[in-house]
Design a protein that fits this description.
By secondary structure, the chain is an alpha/beta fold. About 50% of the residues lie in helices and about 15% in strands. It has a single domain, classed as Rossmann fold, CATH 3.40.50. Bound molecules: NADP nicotinamide-adenine-dinucleotide phosphate. NADP nicotinamide-adenine-dinucleotide phosphate (NAP) binds near residues 39, 188 and 190.
């Protein structure tokens, strides 16, 4: 608990990748971090790192797609440490498949995280955030929510839903003191592609111009965004260039993604 700033962050996807790195970084600045993911053993490991770095950790092993479990977690958190200052919605999974190769169960789990997980956790704390009139919500998103590529139908749909949640909240939260931020990364060298096999090889060739970043760098971007909330954040900067091209000429970017992406039959 040493070095506690009194600030509280709820981080989903905290057992791995961007969420775990963000939790560690916040811990190193003395934050109290509520760690959410399904794998309790992995959360315990991250909790040791957070506490070793001078922060405080609360471990909440649960499936964030399950609203009742999330509501129960929120009640415990509000009781134990009060209203969070920050929510980082980083829980997410999803294989890149054509629609006809995607089972109903796979779609349910892709929509479960990131979309439903972000909805549930944000929903559970929203009354408290609004009552206090302050807070930052960071959604970790994907460029697929701006410029889709072929053969990732369910994945893309869920990331558009996450972006839709962020955009809807932008309108709802205007003037409330609560901020919503959509942080988009290119490829991050997390365990994502091991956890979601037959996915990495389907990154469109045009996407290779965007350098891969580490989860630690992604976490620095998340923490920077918490300190200076912005509506949309891109990292690495090359991703912002691609997004600019997408704004100026969406048809061209879609064509490039299609031509250099996965073709049917492979
Ligand atoms: N890696 C990339 O290249 C990249 C690029 C752009 C955007 N993103 C997005 O960033 C998000 C995080 O990715 P990452 O790279 O950090 O992947 P990761 O290393 O695989 O971590 C994903 C995290 O989400 C958790 N999770 C998944 N489903 C969950 C659920 N239903 N309830 C609670 N926790 C759940 C996992 O923990 P448990 O399995 O223990 O539950 C894990 O902690 C994803 O939405 C991904 O699409 C990733």
């Amino acid at each position: 608990m040493s070095g506690s700033t009194g600030q509280v962050a709820v981080v989903t996807g905290a057992s791995s990748g961007i969420g775990a790195a963000s939790a560690r970084l916040l811990g190193a600045s003395g934050w109290t971090v509520v760690l959410i993911a399904r794998r309790a053993d992995r959360l315990a490991h991250v909790a040791r790192d957070v506490e070793g770095a001078g922060g405080r950790a609360l471990v909440e092993p649960l499936d964030a797609a399950e609203a009742d479990a999330v509501d129960a977690m929120a009640a415990r958190v509000l009781d134990a440490v009060g209203v969070p200052d920050v929510i980082v919605n980083s829980a997410g999974a999803g294989v890149w498949r054509w629609m006809e190769d995607t089972s109903h169960g796979e779609l349910a789990s892709m929509l479960g995280a990131p979309f439903l997980a972000a909805w549930n956790v944000t929903h559970a704390f929203m009354p408290a955030l609004l009552a206090r009139g302050r807070g930052v919500i960071v959604h970790v998103g994907s460029p697929a929510s701006l410029a889709p590529w072929p053969g990732a139908t369910g994945y893309t749909t869920s990331r558009w839903a996450l972006r839709g949640l962020h955009e809807a909240l932008r309108q709802d939260l205007a003037g409330t003191g609560v901020r919503t931020c959509h942080v988009l990364f290119g490829e991050v060298s997390s365990e994502y592609f091991d956890a979601n096999p037959d996915t990495h090889e389907h990154i469109p060739r045009v996407g290779r111009i965007i350098p891969t970043i580490t989860p630690e760098r992604a976490a620095r971007v998340v923490v920077r965004t918490i300190g200076r909330p912005r509506t949309q954040v891109f990292d690495p900067p090359m991703l912002a260039v691609v997004q600019l091209a997408n704004r100026l000429s969406p048809g061209l970017v879609a064509l490039l993604a299609r031509r250099t992406g996965r073709q049917r039959g492979r």
